[in-house]
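Hi U.,

Before I forget, here's the chain from the pilot set. I'm dumping it here mostly so it's searchable later in email.
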Amino acid sequence: MSEATPRFAMPNIMVSQAHKEITHNEALAIIDGLLHVSVIDSASTPPTLTIADAGKCWLVVVPGAGAWTGKENRLASWNGSGWRFVEPVQGMAIWNLQNNTELRFSGSEWLQPGVVFAPAGGTVVDLEARAAFNLLLTHLRTVGILAN
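Structure:
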C-alpha cells in the first residue's frame, strides 16, 4: 500500500503507524477543501487572514508569490494558521465566487467559460427568437457556463 492516495495525495494510514489521528485528520482537511470546491477568487499573492477565515480557498495563478511561490494552478486552502495546497487533476471543476463562473482544469491550465455575444444587427430581425436567445445566454451566464 502506498503512503498516499493516487489522485489527491491524501495520506493513507499505514499498518502499525503511531498517531493515526494525525494522518486521518490531514486527509479530512484535504477532503474538506475539495468537496464542492468554491474559491474566493484567483490570486498570485496570499491575502492576510485570521483564524476566522479558516476554510477559505483561492486559486493560485502565475506568478505565485510569498507562501504561494511555486504553487501555481493549485488550490490554496487556509486552515486558520497556514496554507494547505491541493494539486488539481484533469477534469476538476471549481466555482469562482468573485465572478460566478465555473473553471475546469485541462491537465495543464484552468479554462474559463467562453464568451458568446447577444445577436445584434442583421437585415431580418425575429424579435421572439432574439428574446429567447438572450434569455438562454442570461441563464448560461448566471449558472457560470458562459462568462459575463
